[in-house]
Amino acid sequence: MTETAQQAANVVEQGEPEAKHHPYFRPKDAATLILVDRSGSIPKVLVGRRHDKVVFMPGKFVFPGGRVDKLDHRVPVSAPIPPELEANLLKGSPKITPARARALAIAAIREACEETGLCLGCKTGTVPSSLEGPWQPFGQAGLLPDPSGLFLIARAITPPGRVRRFDTRFFTADASAIAHRVEGVVHADAELVELVWVELGSSPLADLHAMTKNVLGELDRRLATGPLRHDAPIPFFHFYGGRMQKDMLPGG
């Protein structure tokens, strides 16, 4: 998870009071993707270890994620986001448009590719020229991003009073959706120096921030009931009356 997305998770914690030292800033849209390998008896999630010399969370395990980019609104896709996923993304306040819901799902895919080199997509006969910048690896591999296998696990908004505020949606997708790997993204001098598939509940995950562990706990509960479904309730962490509040949005 990049600094922006991780900060969004870090400051929304159970019982943390609302900060008062900064004026109101509108939260920025952000997305995080938790990739899950369910081929074994215990599900594994993909985490990346940050470089020891970075200022923010050195040496910590994180998930890929970050802010929505302008290109995320207009990049072509191999399939639309499922209508049930769109409906879930539209729930909660502040309200967003279907176009922003789509961009959030697409941003989660882009951030995963940028930070881990793992691309969720489908082969296409024609590669659009609009696959530029951070989307270039998809074009080079003959892929279009595919959001059809994403599920929304949680939503969390950074409390008021922060200099940087984010409205983060936590997505998950099965590892089988990985269609291409870009070599050389993770290395000794990169932001992420190592990728590890770890079992849910294992020791590397114990060092994650409380909010991220809350989201993983929700993911673990949902996986225990069988295949992921869009109709499961979605926890929405936000601040109201100066305190963090957890609402359960109905799935649909």
TrEMBL record:
SUPFAM superfamilies: Nudix. One of its GO terms (molecular function) is metal ion binding. InterPro entries: NUDIX_hydrolase-like_dom_sf, NUDIX_hydrolase_dom, NUDT19. Residues 26-222 form the Nudix hydrolase domain. Residues 1-23 are annotated as: Disordered. It comes from the Bacteria. The keyword Hydrolase applies. Its cofactor is Mg(2+); Mn(2+). Keywords: Hydrolase, Magnesium, Manganese, Metal-binding. PANTHER family: ACYL-COENZYME A DIPHOSPHATASE NUDT19 (PTHR12318:SF0), TESTOSTERONE-REGULATED PROTEIN RP2 (PTHR12318). This is NUDIX hydrolase. It comes from Rhodopseudomonas palustris. The lineage of its organism: Bacteria, Pseudomonadati, Pseudomonadota, Alphaproteobacteria, Hyphomicrobiales.
